[in-house]
């Protein structure tokens, strides 16, 4: 799966992540599989960068971005935000949320146990390492 990724102390890079070769009904399932591989208990993630396979420390990933092809799953709530990262970069996009109705705020979404949070932009789906987030600001619609 082709991705763009950023790591602590490195420039963003194009890479390929390895995903299971199983039938999927859409791009959204592929995104879910990549997210699941980032969330599993393994500390390292194999990726092809240039012509070499490297084992990347998940804790050192700032974000992984996948191209969006338009089949975004509907969610109960949307939080339009800017995300300031430790590396000094800021991303702007939408957090899509299906949290319980008694937890409708962006902070509820961010405080889940997951290590990565999903941010959608017009062209990319980011999986952002929460440990690399400095600040999230909700923007008015």
Question: How does this model look, in words?
Answer:
By secondary structure, the protein is mostly beta strands. Helix content is 13%, strand content 45%. A 7-stranded antiparallel β-sheet has the order 4-3-2-1-5-9-8, with helices on one face. Strands 7-6-10 form a 3-stranded antiparallel β-sheet, with no helix packed on it. The N and C termini lie far apart (33 Å). The model has no long low-confidence stretch (mean pLDDT 86).
Quick overview of this protein structure:
The protein has 141 residues and is mainly β. The chain contains two helices and ten strands; from the N terminus they run E-E-H-E-E-E-E-E-H-E-E-E.
Keywords summarizing the entry:
141 residues; 3-stranded antiparallel sheet; mainly beta; 7-stranded antiparallel sheet
From the helix content, strand content and strand pairing, which structural class follows?
Answer: mainly beta
Number of strands: 10
Rg, rounded, reads 15 Å
- N- and C-termini, Cα separation: 33 Å
Low-confidence stretches: none
- What does the average pLDDT come to? 86
Strand content: over 45%
The strand line-up of the biggest sheet is 4-3-2-1-5-9-8
The total count of helices amounts to 2
Helical content stands at: 10-25%
Shape annotation: globular
**N-to-C SSE string, H for helix and E for strand:** EEHEEEEEHEEE
Q: What profile does the largest beta sheet have?
A: 7 strands, antiparallel
